[in-house]
Amino acid sequence: MSNRPWRARVAVATLTALLLSGCSGGSPRPTPTPSPAASSAGPSAPAAPPAGDPAGRAAALVATLSDEDLVGQVLMPYAYGDSATKVSAGSAAGNQALAGVDTPADMIAKYRLGGLILVGFSADDPTKGNQETTNVDNPKQVHELTTGLRAAAGRLTAGPAPLLIGTDQEYGVVTRVSDGVTVLPSALAAGAAGDTKLTEAAWRAAGTELAAMGINIDFAPVADVLATRSTVIGSRSYGADPKQAAAQVGGAVRGLQAAGVAATLKHFPGHGHSADDSHQDLPVLTQSAAALQSGAWPPFTAGMDAGAMAVMSGHLDARAIDPGTPATFSHKLLTDVLRGQLGFKGVVITDGMNMPPAKRWAPGEAAVRALNAGNDLILMTPNVGQAYDGLLAALRGGSLPRTRLVEAVTRVLTMKFQLADLPAAQMSTLNIPAHRAAADALAAAAVTVLRGACGKAVRGPVTVTSSGGRDGTRATLTAALTAAGVQVKPSGGTIVHLVGYGDGAKDLSPDAAVTVAMDTPYVLADAKSPTLLATYSSSRASMTALAAVLAGKAQPGGRSPVAVPGLPATTCRT
Protein backbone atom coordinates (compact mmCIF):
# COMPACT_ATOMS: atom_id res chain seq x y z
CA MET A 1 0.00 0.00 0.00
CA SER A 2 1.64 3.25 -1.11
CA ASN A 3 1.51 6.21 1.21
CA ARG A 4 1.43 8.84 -1.48
CA PRO A 5 -1.93 7.80 -3.02
CA TRP A 6 -3.34 7.67 0.53
CA ARG A 7 -2.10 11.19 1.18
CA ALA A 8 -3.64 12.35 -2.07
CA ARG A 9 -7.02 10.76 -1.31
CA VAL A 10 -7.22 12.38 2.10
CA ALA A 11 -6.19 15.74 0.69
CA VAL A 12 -9.02 15.51 -1.84
CA ALA A 13 -11.46 14.52 0.89
CA THR A 14 -10.42 17.40 3.10
CA LEU A 15 -10.75 19.94 0.28
CA THR A 16 -14.14 18.54 -0.73
CA ALA A 17 -15.37 18.63 2.86
CA LEU A 18 -14.27 22.23 3.31
CA LEU A 19 -16.10 23.19 0.13
CA LEU A 20 -19.21 21.35 1.30
CA SER A 21 -19.03 23.14 4.64
CA GLY A 22 -19.37 26.41 2.77
CA CYS A 23 -15.95 28.03 2.45
CA SER A 24 -16.31 31.35 0.62
CA GLY A 25 -13.67 34.03 0.24
CA GLY A 26 -11.45 32.25 2.75
CA SER A 27 -14.03 32.38 5.57
CA PRO A 28 -16.09 29.38 6.62
CA ARG A 29 -19.87 29.65 6.35
CA PRO A 30 -21.31 28.12 9.55
CA THR A 31 -23.16 24.87 9.15
CA PRO A 32 -26.74 25.17 10.41
CA THR A 33 -26.95 23.92 13.98
CA PRO A 34 -29.90 21.73 14.94
CA SER A 35 -32.31 23.22 17.40
CA PRO A 36 -32.00 22.12 21.05
CA ALA A 37 -35.13 20.02 20.62
CA ALA A 38 -33.72 18.28 17.55
CA SER A 39 -30.36 17.79 19.22
CA SER A 40 -31.85 16.19 22.29
CA ALA A 41 -33.99 13.87 20.23
CA GLY A 42 -30.93 11.82 19.25
CA PRO A 43 -29.30 11.05 15.90
CA SER A 44 -31.31 10.76 12.73
CA ALA A 45 -31.48 7.63 10.62
CA PRO A 46 -28.25 6.89 8.77
CA ALA A 47 -28.11 7.95 5.14
CA ALA A 48 -26.67 5.57 2.58
CA PRO A 49 -23.28 6.80 1.40
CA PRO A 50 -22.73 7.29 -2.31
CA ALA A 51 -20.69 4.87 -4.33
CA GLY A 52 -17.10 5.89 -4.85
CA ASP A 53 -13.78 6.06 -3.10
CA PRO A 54 -13.48 6.34 0.71
CA ALA A 55 -12.49 10.01 0.58
CA GLY A 56 -15.55 10.99 -1.44
CA ARG A 57 -17.88 8.98 0.78
CA ALA A 58 -16.34 10.61 3.85
CA ALA A 59 -16.77 14.12 2.48
CA ALA A 60 -20.40 13.44 1.59
CA LEU A 61 -21.17 12.00 5.01
CA VAL A 62 -19.47 14.87 6.84
CA ALA A 63 -21.80 17.31 5.10
CA THR A 64 -24.81 15.61 6.74
CA LEU A 65 -23.49 15.65 10.31
CA SER A 66 -24.69 17.95 13.06
CA ASP A 67 -22.39 19.69 15.51
CA GLU A 68 -23.00 16.89 18.00
CA ASP A 69 -22.14 14.23 15.43
CA LEU A 70 -18.94 16.00 14.41
CA VAL A 71 -17.74 16.31 18.00
CA GLY A 72 -18.53 12.68 18.78
CA GLN A 73 -16.54 11.41 15.81
CA VAL A 74 -13.25 12.76 17.21
CA LEU A 75 -13.65 11.02 20.58
CA MET A 76 -12.23 7.56 21.26
CA PRO A 77 -12.57 6.80 24.99
CA TYR A 78 -12.27 3.56 26.89
CA ALA A 79 -15.21 2.01 28.72
CA TYR A 80 -15.81 -0.39 31.59
CA GLY A 81 -17.27 -3.82 30.98
CA ASP A 82 -16.53 -6.85 28.83
CA SER A 83 -19.89 -6.64 27.00
CA ALA A 84 -21.44 -3.81 25.03
CA THR A 85 -24.82 -3.97 26.76
CA LYS A 86 -24.52 -6.12 29.90
CA VAL A 87 -22.03 -5.08 32.56
CA SER A 88 -21.47 -5.67 36.26
CA ALA A 89 -22.50 -3.17 38.91
CA GLY A 90 -18.85 -2.17 39.29
CA SER A 91 -18.44 -1.57 35.57
CA ALA A 92 -21.68 0.43 35.47
CA ALA A 93 -20.37 2.61 38.29
CA GLY A 94 -17.13 3.13 36.37
CA ASN A 95 -19.02 4.15 33.23
CA GLN A 96 -21.21 6.51 35.24
CA ALA A 97 -18.13 8.27 36.63
CA LEU A 98 -16.49 8.38 33.22
CA ALA A 99 -19.45 9.30 31.02
CA GLY A 100 -22.73 9.33 32.96
CA VAL A 101 -23.98 6.09 31.38
CA ASP A 102 -24.17 2.45 32.40
CA THR A 103 -22.79 0.53 29.42
CA PRO A 104 -20.33 0.96 26.52
CA ALA A 105 -23.26 0.88 24.06
CA ASP A 106 -24.95 3.71 25.99
CA MET A 107 -21.72 5.71 25.81
CA ILE A 108 -21.55 5.32 22.03
CA ALA A 109 -25.19 6.39 21.64
CA LYS A 110 -25.06 9.38 23.98
CA TYR A 111 -21.85 10.88 22.65
CA ARG A 112 -22.04 9.62 19.03
CA LEU A 113 -18.55 8.25 19.38
CA GLY A 114 -16.17 7.72 16.51
CA GLY A 115 -14.34 4.93 18.26
CA LEU A 116 -13.59 3.00 21.42
CA ILE A 117 -10.31 1.59 22.72
CA LEU A 118 -10.15 -1.80 24.41
CA VAL A 119 -7.87 -1.69 27.43
CA GLY A 120 -6.09 -4.03 29.82
CA PHE A 121 -2.86 -4.55 31.69
CA SER A 122 -0.45 -7.22 32.84
CA ALA A 123 2.30 -7.49 35.44
CA ASP A 124 5.19 -6.44 33.16
CA ASP A 125 3.25 -3.74 31.30
CA PRO A 126 4.98 -0.32 31.34
CA THR A 127 1.72 1.30 30.18
CA LYS A 128 -0.42 0.02 33.04
CA GLY A 129 -0.45 3.47 34.67
CA ASN A 130 -3.23 4.68 32.35
CA GLN A 131 -5.09 1.37 31.98
CA GLU A 132 -8.00 2.09 34.30
CA THR A 133 -9.77 -1.20 33.67
CA THR A 134 -9.62 -4.42 31.66
CA ASN A 135 -12.23 -5.37 29.10
CA VAL A 136 -10.34 -7.98 27.09
CA ASP A 137 -10.21 -11.60 28.17
CA ASN A 138 -10.27 -14.04 25.27
CA PRO A 139 -10.99 -13.93 21.53
CA LYS A 140 -14.62 -15.06 21.79
CA GLN A 141 -15.40 -12.40 24.40
CA VAL A 142 -13.59 -9.72 22.38
CA HIS A 143 -15.49 -10.67 19.23
CA GLU A 144 -18.83 -10.50 21.03
CA LEU A 145 -17.89 -7.15 22.57
CA THR A 146 -16.82 -5.61 19.26
CA THR A 147 -19.95 -6.93 17.53
CA GLY A 148 -22.11 -5.23 20.15
CA LEU A 149 -20.14 -1.99 19.98
CA ARG A 150 -20.40 -1.88 16.20
CA ALA A 151 -24.15 -2.52 16.35
CA ALA A 152 -24.59 0.44 18.68
CA ALA A 153 -22.54 2.70 16.41
CA GLY A 154 -24.46 1.56 13.34
CA ARG A 155 -27.54 3.40 14.61
CA LEU A 156 -25.76 6.77 14.58
CA THR A 157 -25.97 9.30 11.75
CA ALA A 158 -22.32 8.48 11.05
CA GLY A 159 -23.18 4.78 11.18
CA PRO A 160 -22.36 4.04 7.51
CA ALA A 161 -18.72 4.54 8.50
CA PRO A 162 -17.93 1.67 10.90
CA LEU A 163 -16.84 2.33 14.47
CA LEU A 164 -13.12 2.40 15.08
CA ILE A 165 -12.24 -0.26 17.64
CA GLY A 166 -8.63 -0.19 18.69
CA THR A 167 -6.22 -1.61 21.19
CA ASP A 168 -2.51 -1.62 22.04
CA GLN A 169 -1.47 -4.96 20.57
CA GLU A 170 2.25 -4.29 20.22
CA TYR A 171 3.36 -7.78 21.34
CA GLY A 172 6.05 -8.17 23.95
CA VAL A 173 5.33 -6.42 27.24
CA VAL A 174 2.34 -4.52 25.81
CA THR A 175 -0.08 -7.18 24.60
CA ARG A 176 -3.77 -6.78 25.35
CA VAL A 177 -5.06 -10.10 23.95
CA SER A 178 -2.75 -13.02 24.61
CA ASP A 179 -4.89 -16.12 25.17
CA GLY A 180 -6.03 -18.06 22.11
CA VAL A 181 -4.16 -15.91 19.58
CA THR A 182 -0.81 -16.03 17.85
CA VAL A 183 1.60 -14.01 20.01
CA LEU A 184 4.56 -12.44 18.23
CA PRO A 185 7.92 -11.79 19.86
CA SER A 186 8.65 -8.20 20.85
CA ALA A 187 9.64 -5.40 18.49
CA LEU A 188 13.22 -5.55 19.79
CA ALA A 189 13.31 -9.24 18.88
CA ALA A 190 12.28 -8.33 15.33
CA GLY A 191 15.04 -5.74 15.32
CA ALA A 192 17.53 -8.43 16.36
CA ALA A 193 16.32 -10.71 13.59
CA GLY A 194 16.79 -7.90 11.08
CA ASP A 195 14.63 -9.49 8.37
CA THR A 196 11.78 -7.27 7.17
CA LYS A 197 10.15 -10.15 5.29
CA LEU A 198 9.82 -12.13 8.51
CA THR A 199 8.48 -9.05 10.31
CA GLU A 200 5.92 -8.36 7.61
CA ALA A 201 4.73 -11.97 7.52
CA ALA A 202 4.37 -12.12 11.30
CA TRP A 203 2.44 -8.86 11.45
CA ARG A 204 0.18 -9.95 8.60
CA ALA A 205 -0.72 -13.03 10.66
CA ALA A 206 -1.28 -10.92 13.76
CA GLY A 207 -3.37 -8.36 11.87
CA THR A 208 -5.54 -11.10 10.39
CA GLU A 209 -6.38 -12.29 13.90
CA LEU A 210 -7.09 -8.78 15.20
CA ALA A 211 -9.45 -8.17 12.29
CA ALA A 212 -11.20 -11.48 12.93
CA MET A 213 -11.91 -10.35 16.51
CA GLY A 214 -13.40 -7.08 15.25
CA ILE A 215 -10.44 -4.79 15.96
CA ASN A 216 -9.75 -2.49 13.02
CA ILE A 217 -7.01 -0.20 14.36
CA ASP A 218 -3.92 -1.23 16.27
CA PHE A 219 -1.90 1.30 18.24
CA ALA A 220 1.30 -0.20 16.87
CA PRO A 221 4.02 -0.35 15.72
CA VAL A 222 6.21 1.66 18.09
CA ALA A 223 8.37 3.82 15.82
CA ASP A 224 10.49 5.21 18.66
CA VAL A 225 14.24 4.74 18.26
CA LEU A 226 15.76 3.44 21.50
CA ALA A 227 18.34 6.21 21.87
CA THR A 228 18.25 6.00 25.69
CA ARG A 229 17.78 3.23 28.23
CA SER A 230 14.11 3.98 28.43
CA THR A 231 12.26 1.41 30.52
CA VAL A 232 8.87 2.62 29.30
CA ILE A 233 9.86 2.06 25.66
CA GLY A 234 12.58 -0.58 25.98
CA SER A 235 11.81 -3.74 24.04
CA ARG A 236 8.76 -2.06 22.49
CA SER A 237 11.23 -0.37 20.11
CA TYR A 238 12.86 -2.03 17.10
CA GLY A 239 16.27 -0.80 18.20
CA ALA A 240 18.78 2.01 18.50
CA ASP A 241 19.73 2.39 14.84
CA PRO A 242 17.28 4.73 13.05
CA LYS A 243 17.77 3.16 9.64
CA GLN A 244 17.38 -0.42 10.82
CA ALA A 245 14.39 0.45 12.99
CA ALA A 246 12.83 2.24 10.03
CA ALA A 247 13.01 -0.89 7.88
CA GLN A 248 11.32 -2.95 10.59
CA VAL A 249 8.55 -0.39 11.14
CA GLY A 250 7.82 -0.37 7.43
CA GLY A 251 7.51 -4.15 7.42
CA ALA A 252 5.15 -4.15 10.41
CA VAL A 253 2.94 -1.50 8.79
CA ARG A 254 2.70 -3.38 5.50
CA GLY A 255 1.83 -6.64 7.23
CA LEU A 256 -0.75 -5.18 9.57
CA GLN A 257 -2.57 -3.11 6.98
CA ALA A 258 -2.56 -5.90 4.40
CA ALA A 259 -4.79 -7.70 6.90
CA GLY A 260 -7.27 -4.81 7.08
CA VAL A 261 -6.11 -3.23 10.35
CA ALA A 262 -4.91 0.39 10.48
CA ALA A 263 -1.37 0.82 11.79
CA THR A 264 -0.48 3.64 14.18
CA LEU A 265 3.07 4.96 14.39
CA LYS A 266 3.92 6.03 17.91
CA HIS A 267 4.97 8.14 19.81
CA PHE A 268 5.81 11.21 17.69
CA PRO A 269 8.25 13.01 17.92
CA GLY A 270 10.12 10.08 19.53
CA HIS A 271 9.65 8.73 23.05
CA GLY A 272 12.85 6.68 22.88
CA HIS A 273 14.89 9.87 22.96
CA SER A 274 14.09 10.38 26.64
CA ALA A 275 14.46 7.86 29.46
CA ASP A 276 11.55 9.43 31.37
CA ASP A 277 8.02 7.99 31.43
CA SER A 278 5.12 10.07 30.09
CA HIS A 279 2.76 7.93 32.19
CA GLN A 280 4.24 9.76 35.17
CA ASP A 281 5.48 13.15 34.00
CA LEU A 282 6.42 15.16 30.90
CA PRO A 283 9.63 13.76 29.35
CA VAL A 284 11.97 16.31 27.85
CA LEU A 285 13.73 15.81 24.51
CA THR A 286 16.93 17.86 24.67
CA GLN A 287 18.13 16.98 21.16
CA SER A 288 18.35 19.60 18.43
CA ALA A 289 15.77 19.66 15.66
CA ALA A 290 18.41 18.30 13.28
CA ALA A 291 19.24 15.46 15.67
CA LEU A 292 15.57 14.51 15.94
CA GLN A 293 15.17 14.62 12.19
CA SER A 294 18.09 12.27 11.62
CA GLY A 295 17.87 10.16 14.77
CA ALA A 296 14.19 9.94 15.73
CA TRP A 297 12.06 10.46 12.64
CA PRO A 298 13.31 7.93 10.04
CA PRO A 299 11.03 5.13 11.39
CA PHE A 300 8.06 7.50 11.27
CA THR A 301 8.75 8.52 7.68
CA ALA A 302 9.35 4.89 6.72
CA GLY A 303 6.01 3.95 8.26
CA MET A 304 4.30 6.77 6.38
CA ASP A 305 5.88 5.67 3.12
CA ALA A 306 4.61 2.14 3.83
CA GLY A 307 1.09 3.62 4.02
CA ALA A 308 0.51 3.94 7.77
CA MET A 309 -2.98 5.33 8.29
CA ALA A 310 -2.33 6.94 11.69
CA VAL A 311 0.33 8.54 13.86
CA MET A 312 0.06 8.89 17.63
CA SER A 313 1.29 12.14 19.15
CA GLY A 314 3.32 11.76 22.34
CA HIS A 315 3.27 13.70 25.59
CA LEU A 316 6.85 14.85 24.97
CA ASP A 317 8.52 18.24 25.35
CA ALA A 318 10.76 18.75 22.31
CA ARG A 319 12.70 21.74 23.59
CA ALA A 320 14.31 22.59 20.26
CA ILE A 321 10.96 22.97 18.49
CA ASP A 322 8.26 24.03 20.96
CA PRO A 323 9.77 24.27 24.46
CA GLY A 324 7.44 23.59 27.37
CA THR A 325 4.55 22.34 25.24
CA PRO A 326 3.76 18.61 25.09
CA ALA A 327 3.82 17.49 21.46
CA THR A 328 0.18 16.41 21.82
CA PHE A 329 -0.72 20.08 22.15
CA SER A 330 1.92 21.57 19.85
CA HIS A 331 0.79 23.11 16.58
CA LYS A 332 4.45 23.50 15.62
CA LEU A 333 5.13 19.77 15.95
CA LEU A 334 1.89 18.29 14.67
CA THR A 335 0.91 20.78 11.98
CA ASP A 336 4.16 22.48 10.95
CA VAL A 337 6.49 19.47 11.30
CA LEU A 338 4.45 16.26 11.08
CA ARG A 339 2.03 17.46 8.42
CA GLY A 340 4.03 20.26 6.80
CA GLN A 341 7.65 19.09 6.87
CA LEU A 342 7.08 15.32 6.89
CA GLY A 343 3.97 15.42 4.71
CA PHE A 344 1.66 13.18 6.75
CA LYS A 345 -1.99 13.48 5.68
CA GLY A 346 -3.55 10.65 7.66
CA VAL A 347 -5.16 10.54 11.09
CA VAL A 348 -3.26 11.93 14.07
CA ILE A 349 -4.31 10.41 17.40
CA THR A 350 -3.40 11.66 20.85
CA ASP A 351 -1.71 9.44 23.37
CA GLY A 352 -3.92 8.72 26.37
CA MET A 353 -5.44 11.97 27.62
CA ASN A 354 -5.72 10.42 31.09
CA MET A 355 -1.92 10.62 31.46
CA PRO A 356 -0.42 13.33 33.71
CA PRO A 357 1.02 15.63 30.99
CA ALA A 358 -2.45 15.91 29.41
CA LYS A 359 -4.27 16.40 32.72
CA ARG A 360 -2.69 19.78 33.34
CA TRP A 361 -5.87 21.06 31.66
CA ALA A 362 -9.48 20.09 32.30
CA PRO A 363 -10.80 17.43 29.87
CA GLY A 364 -12.75 19.91 27.73
CA GLU A 365 -9.92 22.39 27.37
CA ALA A 366 -7.39 19.62 26.78
CA ALA A 367 -9.53 18.19 23.97
CA VAL A 368 -9.86 21.60 22.29
CA ARG A 369 -6.14 22.27 22.56
CA ALA A 370 -5.35 18.84 21.09
CA LEU A 371 -7.68 19.35 18.11
CA ASN A 372 -6.33 22.82 17.42
CA ALA A 373 -2.78 21.49 17.52
CA GLY A 374 -3.54 19.04 14.71
CA ASN A 375 -4.86 15.85 16.32
CA ASP A 376 -7.90 14.21 14.74
CA LEU A 377 -8.85 11.73 17.47
CA ILE A 378 -8.90 12.28 21.24
CA LEU A 379 -7.91 9.05 22.97
CA MET A 380 -8.88 8.02 26.50
CA THR A 381 -10.18 11.30 27.89
CA PRO A 382 -10.58 11.10 31.69
CA ASN A 383 -14.16 12.39 31.40
CA VAL A 384 -16.14 11.82 28.23
CA GLY A 385 -18.96 14.23 29.05
CA GLN A 386 -16.61 17.10 29.86
CA ALA A 387 -14.53 16.53 26.73
CA TYR A 388 -17.66 16.36 24.56
CA ASP A 389 -19.22 19.47 26.11
CA GLY A 390 -15.94 21.37 25.91
CA LEU A 391 -15.51 20.61 22.21
CA LEU A 392 -19.11 21.50 21.43
CA ALA A 393 -18.88 24.81 23.30
CA ALA A 394 -15.58 25.66 21.61
CA LEU A 395 -17.04 24.87 18.19
CA ARG A 396 -20.04 27.12 18.74
CA GLY A 397 -17.96 29.80 20.45
CA GLY A 398 -15.34 29.92 17.71
CA SER A 399 -12.25 28.82 19.65
CA LEU A 400 -12.36 25.51 17.74
CA PRO A 401 -12.62 26.50 14.05
CA ARG A 402 -15.28 24.56 12.20
CA THR A 403 -12.85 23.98 9.33
CA ARG A 404 -10.42 22.27 11.74
CA LEU A 405 -13.11 19.98 13.13
CA VAL A 406 -14.48 19.15 9.67
CA GLU A 407 -10.95 18.37 8.50
CA ALA A 408 -10.40 16.02 11.47
CA VAL A 409 -13.72 14.21 11.04
CA THR A 410 -13.14 13.85 7.30
CA ARG A 411 -9.81 12.17 7.92
CA VAL A 412 -11.35 9.84 10.50
CA LEU A 413 -14.25 8.87 8.24
CA THR A 414 -11.97 8.37 5.24
CA MET A 415 -9.93 5.87 7.24
CA LYS A 416 -13.11 4.15 8.41
CA PHE A 417 -14.43 3.73 4.86
CA GLN A 418 -11.06 2.49 3.65
CA LEU A 419 -11.05 -0.14 6.39
CA ALA A 420 -14.67 -1.07 5.68
CA ASP A 421 -13.75 -2.02 2.13
CA LEU A 422 -11.33 -4.69 3.36
CA PRO A 423 -12.93 -8.05 4.25
CA ALA A 424 -12.15 -9.32 7.75
CA ALA A 425 -10.95 -12.85 8.36
CA GLN A 426 -12.99 -15.43 10.22
CA MET A 427 -12.45 -16.41 13.85
CA SER A 428 -11.28 -19.81 12.61
CA THR A 429 -8.01 -18.18 11.52
CA LEU A 430 -6.94 -17.49 15.11
CA ASN A 431 -3.74 -19.24 16.17
CA ILE A 432 -3.62 -21.47 13.09
CA PRO A 433 -0.38 -23.34 12.28
CA ALA A 434 0.59 -20.93 9.49
CA HIS A 435 0.36 -17.97 11.85
CA ARG A 436 2.32 -19.71 14.57
CA ALA A 437 4.95 -20.60 12.00
CA ALA A 438 5.35 -16.92 11.10
CA ALA A 439 5.81 -16.00 14.77
CA ASP A 440 8.20 -18.92 15.29
CA ALA A 441 10.36 -17.91 12.33
CA LEU A 442 10.70 -14.35 13.60
CA ALA A 443 11.51 -15.52 17.14
CA ALA A 444 14.08 -18.05 15.91
CA ALA A 445 15.90 -15.43 13.86
CA ALA A 446 16.13 -13.14 16.89
CA VAL A 447 18.04 -15.36 19.33
CA THR A 448 21.43 -13.76 19.95
CA VAL A 449 24.67 -14.96 21.56
CA LEU A 450 26.48 -12.06 23.23
CA ARG A 451 29.05 -14.23 25.00
CA GLY A 452 30.09 -17.84 24.43
CA ALA A 453 30.34 -20.22 21.53
CA CYS A 454 27.89 -19.80 18.68
CA GLY A 455 25.33 -22.58 18.54
CA LYS A 456 27.03 -24.93 21.01
CA ALA A 457 24.62 -27.21 22.84
CA VAL A 458 24.34 -26.73 26.58
CA ARG A 459 25.68 -29.62 28.63
CA GLY A 460 22.75 -31.52 30.14
CA PRO A 461 20.93 -32.15 32.29
CA VAL A 462 19.60 -28.60 32.67
CA THR A 463 17.96 -26.75 35.55
CA VAL A 464 15.89 -23.71 34.56
CA THR A 465 15.77 -20.84 37.06
CA SER A 466 14.46 -17.31 36.80
CA SER A 467 13.99 -14.05 38.60
CA GLY A 468 10.83 -13.78 40.66
CA GLY A 469 7.37 -14.06 39.15
CA ARG A 470 8.32 -15.93 35.99
CA ASP A 471 7.06 -19.40 36.82
CA GLY A 472 4.95 -19.58 33.65
CA THR A 473 7.85 -18.70 31.38
CA ARG A 474 10.12 -21.13 33.17
CA ALA A 475 7.55 -23.87 32.64
CA THR A 476 7.25 -22.99 28.95
CA LEU A 477 11.01 -23.23 28.44
CA THR A 478 11.16 -26.49 30.42
CA ALA A 479 8.55 -28.05 28.15
CA ALA A 480 10.31 -26.78 25.03
CA LEU A 481 13.67 -28.14 26.20
CA THR A 482 12.14 -31.51 26.95
CA ALA A 483 10.55 -31.60 23.48
CA ALA A 484 13.97 -30.76 22.00
CA GLY A 485 15.53 -33.76 23.76
CA VAL A 486 17.22 -31.94 26.66
CA GLN A 487 16.82 -33.47 30.10
CA VAL A 488 15.54 -30.94 32.64
CA LYS A 489 15.93 -31.47 36.40
CA PRO A 490 14.43 -29.46 39.29
CA SER A 491 17.95 -28.89 40.64
CA GLY A 492 21.53 -29.97 40.23
CA GLY A 493 21.85 -29.52 36.50
CA THR A 494 23.52 -26.89 34.34
CA ILE A 495 21.70 -23.71 35.31
CA VAL A 496 19.96 -21.68 32.63
CA HIS A 497 18.74 -18.47 34.27
CA LEU A 498 16.03 -16.21 32.82
CA VAL A 499 15.71 -12.47 33.43
CA GLY A 500 13.12 -10.15 31.94
CA TYR A 501 11.39 -6.78 32.06
CA GLY A 502 12.42 -4.62 35.00
CA ASP A 503 15.20 -6.93 36.17
CA GLY A 504 18.64 -5.69 37.19
CA ALA A 505 21.92 -6.98 38.55
CA LYS A 506 20.24 -8.18 41.75
CA ASP A 507 18.10 -10.58 39.70
CA LEU A 508 21.06 -12.38 38.13
CA SER A 509 22.27 -15.78 39.33
CA PRO A 510 26.00 -16.13 40.11
CA ASP A 511 25.75 -19.89 39.55
CA ALA A 512 24.20 -19.75 36.11
CA ALA A 513 26.12 -21.24 33.21
CA VAL A 514 23.76 -19.51 30.81
CA THR A 515 21.91 -16.23 31.42
CA VAL A 516 19.10 -15.27 29.04
CA ALA A 517 17.69 -11.73 28.68
CA MET A 518 14.02 -11.86 27.69
CA ASP A 519 13.64 -8.08 27.40
CA THR A 520 16.28 -5.42 26.74
CA PRO A 521 19.73 -7.06 27.02
CA TYR A 522 21.42 -4.30 29.08
CA VAL A 523 21.36 -6.43 32.24
CA LEU A 524 23.74 -8.91 30.60
CA ALA A 525 26.58 -6.42 31.07
CA ASP A 526 26.57 -7.40 34.77
CA ALA A 527 26.17 -11.16 34.26
CA LYS A 528 29.13 -13.46 35.00
CA SER A 529 27.83 -16.50 33.12
CA PRO A 530 30.18 -17.89 30.45
CA THR A 531 27.27 -17.94 27.99
CA LEU A 532 24.94 -14.97 27.51
CA LEU A 533 21.89 -15.14 25.23
CA ALA A 534 19.08 -12.76 24.39
CA THR A 535 15.59 -13.52 23.11
CA TYR A 536 14.20 -10.01 23.85
CA SER A 537 10.84 -11.67 24.52
CA SER A 538 9.26 -14.29 26.79
CA SER A 539 6.65 -15.46 24.29
CA ARG A 540 6.06 -19.14 23.64
CA ALA A 541 7.69 -18.72 20.23
CA SER A 542 10.77 -17.14 21.81
CA MET A 543 11.12 -19.91 24.42
CA THR A 544 10.77 -22.57 21.72
CA ALA A 545 13.48 -20.87 19.68
CA LEU A 546 15.71 -20.61 22.76
CA ALA A 547 15.27 -24.32 23.49
CA ALA A 548 16.36 -25.20 19.96
CA VAL A 549 19.55 -23.15 20.38
CA LEU A 550 20.30 -24.62 23.81
CA ALA A 551 19.79 -28.12 22.39
CA GLY A 552 22.26 -27.37 19.60
CA LYS A 553 19.57 -27.82 16.96
CA ALA A 554 19.52 -24.23 15.71
CA GLN A 555 22.11 -21.57 14.99
CA PRO A 556 21.45 -18.26 16.78
CA GLY A 557 21.59 -15.63 14.04
CA GLY A 558 20.36 -12.53 15.86
CA ARG A 559 22.33 -9.34 16.50
CA SER A 560 21.60 -7.10 19.47
CA PRO A 561 19.82 -3.99 18.13
CA VAL A 562 21.09 -1.98 21.12
CA ALA A 563 24.63 -1.61 22.44
CA VAL A 564 25.44 -3.50 25.65
CA PRO A 565 28.61 -2.22 27.40
CA GLY A 566 31.48 -4.68 27.18
CA LEU A 567 29.67 -7.10 24.89
CA PRO A 568 29.53 -7.52 21.10
CA ALA A 569 26.28 -7.45 19.13
CA THR A 570 26.86 -11.18 18.59
CA THR A 571 29.66 -13.72 18.87
CA CYS A 572 28.39 -15.48 15.77
CA ARG A 573 29.99 -14.69 12.44
CA THR A 574 27.48 -13.08 10.08
UniProtKB/TrEMBL annotation:
**GO MF annotations in UniProt:** beta-N-acetylhexosaminidase activity
Residues covered by region (Disordered): 23-55
Q: Which InterPro entries match?
A: GH, Glyco_hydro_3_AS, Glyco_hydro_3_C_sf, Glyco_hydro_3_N, Glyco_hydro_3_N_sf, NagZ_Beta-hexosaminidase
Q: What is its EC number?
A: 3.2.1.52
**Ranges of biased composition (kind: Low complexity):** 36-45
Q: Spell out the Pfam families in the cross-references.
A: Glyco_hydro_3
Would the keyword Ribosomal protein turn up in this protein's UniProt record?
no
Specify the Glycoside hydrolase family 3 N-terminal domain's residue ranges: 103-414
Keyword line? Glycosidase, Hydrolase, Signal
Q: Which PROSITE patterns match?
A: GLYCOSYL_HYDROL_F3 (PS00775), PROKAR_LIPOPROTEIN (PS51257)
* Keyword check for Signal: yes
Transmembrane stretches in the record are none
Q: Which reaction does it catalyse?
A: Hydrolysis of terminal non-reducing N-acetyl-D-hexosamine residues in N-acetyl-beta-D-hexosaminides
Signal sequence span per UniProt?
1-26
Q: Which family does it belong to?
A: Belongs to the glycosyl hydrolase 3 family.
Output this protein's name: beta-N-acetylhexosaminidase
Q: Which organism is it from?
A: Micromonospora ureilytica
